[in-house]
Amino acid sequence: MSHSTADAGEVYDYIIVGAGSAGCLLANRLSADPNTKVLLLEAGGKDNYHWIHIPVGYLYLMGNPRADWGYTTAAEPGLNGRSLNYPRGRVLGGCSSINGMIYMRGQSRDYDLWRQMGNPGWGWDDVLPYFKAHEDQWALEPEAFDGLHERGGEWRIEKPRISWEILDAFRDAAAEAGIPKTDDFNGGNNEGCGYFHVNQKAGVRWNTSKGFLNPIKHRRNLTIETDAFVDWLILDKKHVKGLAYRRKSETLMAFSARETILAAGSIGTPQILQLSGIGPGPVLKKAGVTVLHELKGVGENLQDHLQIRCAYKVSGVSTMNEQYQSWLKRAGFALEYAVRRRGPMTMAPSQLGAFTKSDPSRDTPNIQYHVQPLTLPKFGEPLDPFPAFTASVCNVRPTSRGHVRIVSPDAKVHPEIHPNYLATEDDRRVAADSVRVTRRIISMPALQKYRPEEFRPGPEIDGDEALAKAAGDIATTIFHPVSTAKMGNDDRAVVDARLKVHGLTGLRVIDASVMPSITSGNTNAPTMMIAEKGARMVLEDARK
User: What integer pLDDT is reported at residue 4 of this predicted model?
Assistant: First the structure.
């Protein structure tokens, strides 16, 4: 299958594909000049569904076709043959409308490594100004900013509006185990234990649609189309001149006088490239797509964070598990939220975080905890009926690499997503060590008064191989796919350091797929930094 270059459609200066964490910010920055005509296309609908805005609503968004693409992974050998649901935002605001709302930049070493991998301008000192450019930091007081934070930008950051005795005890136990308390994970080395900063405003989710689109959606030079499903890019030899997209049953064309920008995320972006004939020849041919531009790395190098959900029964302390069993308590949650915008309905999926080393040989913290005052067999299932908490731990620098590959020339057919979790010896060792670190924290006096009993994976499981296998049984994604159109100059790189696709003109990728390697923590804030820096590059190049 190949695509013609018919010329009938509106012409814009810039076309942005995807109104997610990157796309909304890009639309804001590129349409700031009233003489620049911008088209923003979003395959999903508007973000007017009430569960998007109530923080605990993420429970009703994942797997819901109103907000989620509903992807699943291939059966994963490292997960003992299990396939995982793979939520991705399909709505204005993208994943910022359905994610865990955690503001996390990663470590300075992540970005310094990007620079060392052949990407000038992407070191920590280079990217810090782009994090600060849109930051509105209210979780810290200005005297604690230390040159690292700003107030007044579009991206609201606050403290969580609920605390739990069991989480405070975990924080104390972590300190007893040598993990210091911290109030800010975002200074460059995120070692420590503390409450996460969240993207909320007074107990309501803050997404990129609210932050970047709502204030500017009436600009006359900006066109925002929802339910606009991109089929393929239109190539004229090695120049991308626009794209074809579907709205309802109609196929439309749009053309870019300057650039087409893919911001469709780590699944959507490689899928669109491959459907357009841009990618690894064997993958395209197998799917029935004509190869127009061979690029080996498109859809390869997939990286993600896998969380091992260790769970402990406790006594003598309240957790969400038993509170949720009571209709009366649940009515109280709703009332507290309605009246004060406080309480359990303001909860992000995880409130307390920690970063530490899985073993002393690591140069900086390489594992991250998401600690929750609840347990459940798996997402979508009811909470366990007894008091318990989850100490979920993930390797933030996995060495396993997977892929995203189309299996059909039809854009509506989901690609194969194969993260390839726990495929390397290092990842399996870190998984085993992570469970041991967790057990050490739990053994500390601050938690022992609640008589914690491990029931996932189970105290009888020990030894590297047994622990790695058990991790495969209980681990799940933490929803951070990146790097499927990586930045660099090796033969697997898809974009250069200015985010232009190698060997083509008129096309950039500006989203999480360009990360050369995954950041040490949640990936939403780094994606927005990439968009902020990418927008600056687009505007600089236009002036040239």
Answer: 44
